[in-house]
Amino acid sequence: MVTREPQALIKQIREDIEASRNARLWKDSIHMLNTVSESIFSRSAHFILELLQNAEDAAFTAGVDQGEITFRIFPNHVLVSHNGGLFSPDDVDALCGVRSTKKPEKGTLGYLGIGFKSVFKVTDCPEIHSGGFHFKFDRNAHPDPTKELWQITPIWLDAGSASVDPDLTTFVLPFRTEGAYRQTLEELKKLDVHVFLFLRRLRKLRIVDQAAGTESVLEHLGEQSRFPQQGRRHSSIYNLPVSEARAARSVE
User: Fold this and answer.
1) Do the bridges between strand 202-209 and strand 67-73 make them parallel or antiparallel, or are there none, so unpaired?
2) For 114-169, what is each residue's pLDDT tens digit?
3) Which of 80, 85, 71 lies closest to 201, judged by CA?
């Protein structure tokens, strides 16, 4: 694969996938993707942990020490954005498959290259916006999705369903059902400062509940200097109405 221009790369990946339609393993690949999306990830909200790990990995790769991630949840979708490294062509190529660009590590996005597929527990049409790449995977774009590799077949987007910051990596996940929204909201509310025990580059996690008009912030404040041998960490959590949170960020 030699094409590097974003839209042309998405087109080439689609053509490469389509060219394998008559291959012997086509039906097996469909079954595998369905199994990965629906069975391996038992909880609908598992994707939250996978996207946290994705942001951590991206920050490490890009050398970002003050990583931040935001989950902005609406009744019909959740928008996840982080300031880690933007997508490269290799990242896009890896996402459009079931493999990894790094050494597999169980429990992370890179484990067997399947972590991102956890989003398909809650959505049929995830969007990805990063590094000049704007595309989606869409079950409803195919007449008979049961016969398609729709979870890895990218569709270019001239305009996304939400406004995104070009300097961030953003995932837009429309909820398949109201139940997916409620479960995701509840799982986000359960996150606390203990999440930073497994993260080194992510330092701030924002959770914005648009329906309630509130914003929660989890922040890792660094190592505890009095007990360096124990490697303890200071963390904090605070809650603000969305209007006050926006005002606070404007003076940061």
Assistant:
1) parallel
2) 788 889 999 999 999 999 999 999 999 999 999 999 999 999 999 777 789 999 99
3) 85
CA gap 85, 63 in Å, rounded: 8
59-101 per-position pLDDT tens digit: 988 899 899 999 999 999 999 999 998 999 988 988 998 654 4
Give 237-245's long-range contacts (Cβ < 8 A, gap of 24+).
237/192, 237/193, 239/214, 239/215, 240/214, 240/215, 241/213, 241/214, 241/215, 242/208, 242/210, 242/213, 242/214, 242/215, 243/213, 245/206, 245/208, 245/215, 245/217
Q: How many domains does the chain have?
A: 1
List the structure tokens of 229: 């041998």
157 occurs within a structural domain: yes
Question: In sequence order, which residues have a C-beta less than 8 Å from that of residue 46 and are 6 or more positions away?
Answer: 118, 121
User: Would you say the pTM of this structure is higher than 0.90?
Assistant: no
Residue 166: give its domain's CATH number: 3.30.565
- Domain assignment present for residue 184? The answer is no
- DSSP assignment, residue 225? T
Strands 169-174 and 77-82 turn out to be antiparallel
In a domain, 88, yes or no: yes
Containing structural domain, residue 10 = 6-178
